[in-house]
Structure prediction request, 146 residues.
Amino acid sequence: MSKSKPENMNENQSFTPYQQAEGEEYMSSEQRDHFRKILNNWKQELLDEVDRTVKNLKEEASNFADPADRATQEEEFSLELRTRDRERKLIKKINETLVSIEEGDYGYCEACGIDIGIRRLEARPTATMCVDCKSLAEIKEKQIGG
Prediction:
């Protein structure tokens, strides 16, 4: 089965980091286009992976006589389907991010309103919080969650 792309897409960067011009306004139309392209490419890669999974599941589906072989195949299918489910949720988040670009809200922390930053967004294009707010949210989550 194929390996899926991690949610943090830096490991397989398929874009050139954005070079901000001197005096360029944050989230200019060029920057929004840059992130729109990154997100659309990432979304297409995820959709292509879904197509490959469907094809693999159809091709590899065998009725093994040996129960251990059958159990192994079923476990592999289960893992693959769980990965695709996570990617389905990620595609939804990418779509929401694309909407926020169109609405002009992209690139600003949903908690405090400051700039998230070009490099953070390139590392995690679906980020909705600045590093500081995200760190605080994670600390609170650990304290509440145990």
